[in-house]
């Protein structure tokens, strides 16, 4: 393949995509923890030997960028000593990993004696030996207090044989070691399946063609990105947001700012994160990988979703990071324990909502943020299984998705950094696995950020212990600062959580929660909802009618917020739009001060949260 | 002479095969242009009857088994033209059908709305009462509220009710009490109880299956009862059977009672056909069946002689469609097909699909106004299909139109037009091969050690696909164009019962397990006792469990070798059987881990008699004066490919490429370094020359 071959390039790309899907299947189905096979908190990718990201699975957006930084650590630290049969464990957030809880396994792939590719399988672990039974150590002052074992590209296999002393180290420190070991095996077999298939691919097409392909594929991806940027209006944007306050550690929260320079002529986008505060003394610092992934995600969410996401496309985007910044390259030993979600979620929102500023039809509203009660890490012992200990993150419900230029937000969105990808736990499965009982899990009507395309509504979740107490941890955001609407769309609602005591008395919980619930008590909360896109008065009345029929909105909000007059009733089956009066009402709204805003403080009123 | 008739009634074509015991089989394919099922069946029978000179009434009067498959239920779900159905669930959990199990394909694509739940939220009702995971009653059943609800459902003229309460699989009493109230207050209202239809843990799966089943009850009853009455009226006196998604067929009454089993039951027949043809040719029991239509490629698997089943079969796209939930033959539909459009993206890469020209306007060469180059246009331009004699002369192809459409693309690619067409064919085959590979791998099957059985239009690609997959055993059956109807000819009656009970092999309760298995046996025995007029001497019951290593989330099905379980050794056999299944699926096993059984299944199989000859095709209709070779492009130069019609194809004949096999509804392309052998049974066995 001497010059770009449009057919052969497509064929080899399809085959590599298929190899990555096989890696994905292998990991997902052999793993032990729900976080991986159900919540999809993993990714598989293939990098070139010169540390460029060639192709990655359609995994979580927060894993988008960084596996090539990790292979660079491997090639630097082990220069001259990388051999066929090696496998490296990398979870070092100061050297390219997302955060310590993501164990990445790097397998160098050799063909005819030459290191050609590195197959990477990265998976979030249920536990990594932190000081507390959670992988989200929000309060950790530094990496020492966080307590994770750190592996900066440590060789765990040579000659296809495992270095058992490292396994023993992990087993001696990680809670539920069998589960970790099962995932260790699963991730290595995933990377090894990639290795096997890549070697077959090389054997079929030959070294020269494969090397030429790698160059051609990255160049092609760059061209795709170039075309996209050339189609954007020139703009210099600056957008800000704030992560919630966190007790006395962060009384004002974390202010965040991104400068965006879209230069269609040069076909380049610059994302400037340098104007952000220094690292904070808790676990919220982003890592280089997550800060970059998050702002890139904001861009990729806003453009043609078929553009390949690899180092070729990344050449057209410059990301400026500052050493020692909360949204930059973290300075050791600041903790990045929560690097994959909170600050990163805000960064995704800041960028995608900034894109909405370039004109109608562009960008997205902000998506709901905050890992609330539906995403808690629960731990305790199970009296039904002779007191066996458990610790795991539940995935029952999350925050609502953003309104977009052509569609409403998705209720299964969960968080900006995961974008609806995770599978949800069945309530029955969680009740089987943990000695807890759910009381409710439902959509709350009238809670999505209103807009021409509205945000997804908030989800309520309530649960408590059966016979024995348990601990629940969640590092929520979105309790103070909601997801913003764009282009006249309204903000989403904030998250809210309560502890309900045995007598029914309710105590509101802070955003970062670490509690032990006793039998008779339960927690009830609502996750944040998504922001709206565009003026709600421009929403297609047929969509408003459907929302009222289906209970996403009520007739009151249809009238007050959307300016739609309905006649008849849902129960009688004759609910209909009165078009003339709708036109009149919308004119009045538009002439006046606009539609009524969301309820006063932008959060779900306590009495809306029911429970049975 | 008695006949066995199978009819596969799709929304576009109705396929029929008539076989008799000892004589030849006949194949018919007609365009479905009547909404009335009986009329569509009659049209198909008329066509085949004409071939053998037997009128349809005589065929039906002498028919022992009439096996019927229809896409009616599937189409009703997709178009939401099902009964007005209420969904009744546990108070506090109304959004089970809305939220599904989460998941999304394409994390960066925000352009589509979230899909509505199968049953609208306004038709969802909550009732008080709650069972725990252990079957304890956490809150009592709200009988007063239930009675009020039953009256509401009656008064608002619901046509069906789906009832799925949390943990009804641990204790069904609340579901049963609601059913009693419904029977009392709304005696004519059909309903489905989740613990009876699908007793498995995970509320969305159970709820989705229950909702689909209930919503189909009124219309499938009308459809099947109506058809049977009309068949009886013209003298049909045999057994009336209906395809089942479980991979067999059911007496019509059983299908009426659980109509969900008729959904996607047509594609479920293709692996049965694949298994038979592979057996017939002595090509082993690991089989990949690929059936290519105009817009999709259906891939099904047979592993070690067992048809692969799954609880993850969706109507519509995975995650956002509607989950069948029942253990159904796992046939995956991949977006591909002869109508897929080729294009060049703004990075200069050749792409095929996902856009399709469909059947209207169809490929450019159909001459119906389409001007986008499709895979079929490429095939026509390269000489792979007979331009002047397509569909047995029913349609002429406009090669100039194909040339123009592909010419535009060739200019964009900077290559000669035939090379562009060749590239389209290569890339299309590559995409199908990757899709087939993905499906096989996801079930732990290695395509290189499997046999491929092709159906539909895949003959144009199958050699390339086999080469790409490294697969050396390939069969194109004579009945490739009617693969599902062929599978129906060989289908057994298959009925499954299941129950949910969590049990670990390191704390096994033999008595509880045996009680449960005995109950499954009893339920199937009662069913078998109701099968009047069938030969039960060959009937068998097999047992399976769905199990996982402790702590895993998704289960694997593995067989339960010894039932009843007698002692430690039968538990050891279960553990060993699971380790082997895990090794096959994931190339690893964890000897140290306990095995957790989640669901228990029993399957009754009643064979419907053997000795059916393989179907053979109709006499050729080809114009004998037509040329026996045609100019085709395989590389950059045109070569003369010999064209073989049905009359030429005697058993034992070996055809070396370049060649083309043409039958009225099937084409097989044999590239230069490949060959085809006609088997004794009349099937085509493809292999590389060498």
Q: Summed up, what is this model?
A:
Chain A is of the alpha+beta class and 612 residues long. Helices cover 28% and strands 21% of the residues of chain A.
Account of the protein in words:
The complex is a heterodimer of chains A (612) and B (690). Chain A folds into three domains: 6-221, Beta-Lactamase (2-Layer Sandwich); 364-535, no CATH class; 538-594, no CATH class. Helices cover 28% and strands 21% of the residues of chain A. Chain A has 14 helices and 22 strands. A seven-stranded antiparallel sheet of chain A has the order 2-1-5-4-3-6-7, sandwiched between helices. A five-stranded antiparallel sheet of chain A has the order 14-15-20-17-18. Chain A is globular, with a radius of gyration of 25 Å. Helix content of chain B is 31%, strand content 27%. In chain B, helix 11 (375-381) crosses helix 13 (417-442) and helix 12 packs across helix 13. The model of chain B is unreliable at 617-627 (pLDDT under 50). At the A-B interface, helix 1, helix 6, helix 7, helix 11 and strand 14 of A face helix 8 and helix 13 of B.
